[in-house]
Amino acid sequence: MKTVLIRDIGQYNGKQVTLKGWLYNRRSSGKIQFLIIRDGTGFIQGVLVQSDVSSEDWELAAGITQESSVQVTGTVKEDSRSPLGFELQVEKIEVITSAQDYPISLKEHGVDFLLDHRHLWLRTPRQAAIMHIRNTVVKAMRDWLDAQGFTLVDAPILTPAACEGTTTLFETEYFGDKAYLSQSGQLYMEAAALALGRVYCFGPTFRAEKSKTRRHLIEFWMMEPEMAFVDHNGNMALQEEMVKFVVRTVLDKHRNDLALLERDTAKLENVINKPFAKMTYDEAIDYLQKQGHEIQWGDDFGAPDETVLANLHDGPVFVEHFPTAIKAFYMKPVPGRPEVVLAADLLAPEGYGEIIGGSQRIDDLDLLLQRIQEHKLPEEAFKWYLDLRRYGSVPHSGFGIGLERFVSWICGLSHLREAIPFPRLINRLYP
RNA sequence: UCCUCAGUAGCUCAAGGGUAGAGCAACCGGCUGUUAACCGGUAGGUUGCAGGUUCAAAUCCUGCCUGGGGAGCCA
What we know:
Elements lengths: L15 E13 L3 E7 L4 E7 L5 H8 L6 E10 L7 E12 L13 H6 L1 H4 L3 H23 L3 E2 L5 E2 L11 E4 L2 E5 L4 H11 L1 E9 L12 E10 L3 H22 L1 H6 L4 H8 L4 E4 H10 L12 H8 L6 E4 L12 E2 L2 E5 L1 E6 L4 E8 L4 H10 L8 H8 L5 E7 H9 L20
Parallel strand pairs: 3-5, 6-10, 12-13
Antiparallel strand pairs: 1-2, 1-4, 2-3, 4-5, 7-9, 8-9, 10-11, 11-18, 13-16, 14-15, 16-17, 17-18
The structure holds one RNA strand.
């Protein structure tokens, strides 16, 4: 007997198949039982009619507990009452392992309880939909980069010092020395871009900030492309194309998952059908001040400021040319305006905040050296980085895109913690 | 670190000075088309911890602990 996946069940209409999975829920109505089986690729309703199965199978099915692992054999039947379009007329059922007192019920639960049971919470349809979309987002980003001639270059996670020197790092011991968990692979990507042209890294990123909001994780995944011979405008063009490609791919492949998440897909359609809006930092400050925000030129945006700017548009918006003083040391000044840099943040619509931060990098050795001194960074630690400007320096740009923020926005989640399988949050390192 | 809200049955929540309750889950029974099924029954409690006020505290007061939401920081 062939074991098939629920995802492929439509190919077996009228045929007898075997499914291996878990019992998600059971309903009964006297002489008929409905078993909801999940196998990781989908959910299907199995129907048992008492008169059609042996009394042993009938009794066995009646006693199966929630989340017991099962093997079910039956005939696939098209049925308009099924959300999937198909049901399984069950003929034989076996329990692989019986589950006892499964903690997560089908009713609502609180966040604390669910996070404590994240290892089981992942079994629910909603979480499965998010994980499938997350998978597609990663694959689409990588497919797109591959097609554009990018090479994946893995950056180290254990690093000798801060890449940007500002945010708090997780410190660990490295054979008697101190080492830090990476907060960005960017500097390494610059080296790789000058070796391989177009590169990107994708891996976990660690920020020891005591952030406690729906937009922050202690450990999150970031993809960081870096391109030689690409300037600030080329950088933004690449970002826009990639974001549109990913959104389009998810819309193509995950209509059902997005519907299950109750995502308004019209808002995503908007994104792929027109150019992203652009505004400068100067224009943004002007606007915010006219709206009555207490913000001065030179200040960084707060979360409420970002939301107001993002709400000006029904798609993502680039904000560019930030003050040099509030941005990283390696960003290239705007020609003729040294007080601002060739950097842009991409703000997602609907209050999801900054999903991309990117910039053109300084390619001049003397200026970079000056910036390292201004930021009081240890010159010795950046010796290799300075070498990149010493040996065949070229204009180059790159950006970092936060996977969980991207996934949250696409899925319409209210909190980043649902966008990653096992979220690391302040006060939460379990499970 | 700061602001704010909340901790009562396995879960989600009532009871706001006077015997601690419901729905779901569990268990028993009923029902041939259920979609978080439904109906009847059984069992389930040191009301986060410590102290205080009171004849009497889940309820009022103080402190602590834990968690949620937000600020700052940023992807």
